[in-house]
Specification:
A: four-stranded antiparallel sheet; 0% helix; globular; B: 111 residues; six-stranded mixed sheet; five-stranded antiparallel sheet; 11 strands; 56% strand
């Protein structure tokens, strides 16, 4: 695709439910990042993949959050037992190889609302 | 981004220059970035500066870095209504470390 694609664009779920958010990075990009942006805040790092492996998951807030990237391309962020505080825009970014001097391209995000 | 601070709002007249300021706390930051976010759109990288540089210019954009004071600024010359957006300052330490963002500065351009 032309850019990073995230689906769905909007997701409303009930408290306690399980959700999956999908990210399709730019083809060939080995690095993939997940961020969470709450209202009025900047994006906060969740997890970073280099290829299939999670190189840094220090930003995941608790064990209800999990992410996978089994084939080194598409990634899924999974949230169990959702809470109202999980409501935010979840952003995905990819870059050709990672590294500070390479641009990370962001998707438009998935707006998650937990009611 | 508790380690990166920005003022929340800036309002300028069309045609004037805008200066958006940012302070960061970690002197080991290697790369400093400016991102733009328009309503309903993803983050767009505007420019970045390596920590051993003092200034970088790219068309209407000028980035100034004062490493001693840990202060970064973005100057937009001849500001246009299309520049209205939220601008985020971000830092990265090196390699593949994730970006640390500020809360963003909302720029409003008055015609």
């Amino acid at each position: 695709g032309a850019g990073v694609s995230q689906t769905p664009s909007n997701k409303v779920t009930e408290k306690g439910k399980y959700v999956e958010l999908r990210c399709d990075p730019i083809s060939g990009h080995t690095a993939l990042y997940w961020y969470r942006q709450s209202l009025g805040q900047g994006p906060e790092f969740l997890i970073y993949f280099q290829g299939t492996g999670a190189a840094d998951d220090s930003g995941l807030p608790n064990d209800r959050f999990f992410a996978v990237r089994p084939e080194g391309s598409v990634s899924t962020l999974k949230i169990q037992r959702t809470e109202r505080g999980d409501s935010a825009v979840y952003l995905c970014a990819s870059s050709p190889r990672g590294g500070g001097d390479t641009e990370a391209f962001f998707g438009q995000g998935t707006r998650l609302t937990v009611v | 981004g508790e380690d990166v601070e920005q003022s929340l709002f800036l309002s300028v007249r069309e045609g004037d220059s805008s200066v958006i300021n940012c302070t960061y706390t970690d002197s080991s930051s290697t790369y400093l970035y400016w991102y733009k976010q328009e309503p309903g759109a993803g983050l767009q990288l505007l420019t970045y500066i390596f920590s051993n540089m003092d200034m970088k210019q790219d068309q209407r954009l000028t980035v100034l870095l004062n490493k001693k004071d840990k202060h970064l600024s973005l100057r937009i010359a001849d500001t246009q209504t299309g520049d209205s957006a939220i601008y985020f300052c971000a830092e990265a330490f090196s390699g593949n470390t994730p970006l640390v963002f500020g809360k963003g500065t909302r720029l409003s351009v008055i015609a």
